[in-house]
Amino acid sequence: MRPVQRGASPQANDFSDYVDAKPFLVSRLGPYCSYCERRVSTNLAVEHIQPKGLPAYAALTGRWTNFLLGCVNCNSTKKDKHVALSDFFLPDRDNTFAAFNYRADGGIEVSGGVALAQHALATGLLSLVGLDKPISIAVDENGKQVALDRVSQRMEVWGIATEAKSDVDANPGNDAVRRGAVRTATAEGFFSIWMIVFDGDVDMRNRLIDAFSGTRGSGCFDAVTAISHCPAPNPDLLANGSKL
């Protein structure tokens, strides 16, 4: 899961209508769901980390530091579940890239680098937004599988990223091929998949980190080696940050 830096609020006070924060969030984080990482051209929503539907969090409805971006699937799964900041890894304050391993079969698992004592924080986040759900197979009238759910979409993008890596490997010194791969990555989304597929290619990984808005600012990746490091520096000094 891509770690991000939201940055300081673009205005001095809370938003009277939280929807007004969306252009600023998209500009700073890119048009991607902050949880499942897919690119969402329409219906990308301002996501309240601590849900606006619970009376305990009503005062945070317009609070910039309580906003991320969410797709309809992640939002509908998360709904109004109570979110204690200390009980989950969160992409705006923890190194969520280091928390999970993405597989070619579309599955997501807790990374081996996560301490056993912190496994509950990682699995809790997957469950919170439904990223632990199994694949749902759909086929068209010709019997061809169609990528409708998030698992099958991850599988599809893994294949696209693998093809792009083959092109880059076949033309290692061709800058145009590398730039083309990055354009494809930002068009498809799923940052973590691209980073894993291009593991070992420092140049490509740095290009990806820079191309996905808000990622470099998280401070979770070394500027030279592109290696992920923990704990997250939590540059915005958010509550319960740097848990990983």
Topology readout:
Blueprint (H helix, E strand, L loop, with lengths): L21 H8 L15 E4 L18 E4 L1 H7 L17 H4 E3 L5 E3 L8 H11 L20 H21 L4 H14 L2 H7 L4 H10 L33
Antiparallel strand pairs: 1-2, 3-4
Helix pairs in contact: 5-6, 6-8
- Please give the order of strands in the largest beta sheet: 1-2
| Average of the residue pLDDT scores | 94
Secondary structure category? mainly alpha
Tell me, briefly, the overall form: globular
Q: In total, how many beta strands? A: 4
Helix share, percent: 25-40%
Helix and strand pattern: HEEHHEEHHHHH
Task: Briefly summarize what is shown.
With 244 residues, the chain is mainly alpha-helical. The chain has helices at 22-29, 72-78, 96-99, 119-129, 150-170, 175-188, 191-197, 202-211; strands spanning 45-48, 67-70, 100-102, 108-110. The protein contains eight helices and four strands.
What does this structure look like?
The protein has 244 residues and is mainly alpha-helical. The chain is built from 8 helices and 4 strands, in the order H-E-E-H-H-E-E-H-H-H-H-H. Helix 5 runs antiparallel to helix 6 and helix 6 (175-188) packs across helix 8. The longest helix has 21 residues, at 150-170. The relative contact order is 0.17.
